[in-house]
UniProtKB/TrEMBL annotation:
InterPro entries: RNA-binding_CRM, RNA-binding_domain, RNA-binding_YhbY, YhbY-like_sf. Transmembrane segments: none annotated. Signal peptide: none annotated. The gene is yhbY. Keywords: RNA-binding. Pfam families: CRS1_YhbY (PF01985). GO terms for molecular function: RNA binding. This is Ribosome assembly RNA-binding protein YhbY. It comes from the Bacteria.
Length: 97
């Protein structure tokens, strides 16, 4: 499934008030982080992740590896913030247009 422009715009609006709940630091992305983000996505469906200044990896690479590892969609990368969306199987709250 690919997100349409309208769906991404809707998700960006939904994510606006959220605070980042994960931070990617100088160690970059690891398996434990991917597992925890996957669990958070199952609970919340839409999360923000902050990339710290000392992260050695490119923010686009970080976003891709997180999205691939969790089977999520990248909604937005703005500054050092990544917004990810994954439809929940058990806790579905967000209805896409």
């Amino acid at each position: 499934m690919k997100l349409t422009g309208k769906q991404k715009r809707f998700l960006r609006a939904e994510a606006h008030h959220l605070n980042p709940i994960f931070q990617v630091g100088k160690d970059g992305v690891n398996d434990n982080m991917i597992k925890q983000i996957g669990e958070a996505l199952e609970r919340r469906e839409l999360i923000k992740i902050s990339i710290l200044q000392n992260c050695m990896e490119d923010k686009d690479e970080v976003a891709e590896s997180l999205a691939d590892g969790t089977d999520a969609h990248i909604v937005q990368i703005i500054g050092n913030i990544i917004v990810l969306y994954k439809e929940s199987e058990n806790h579905k709250e967000i209805l896409l247009p």
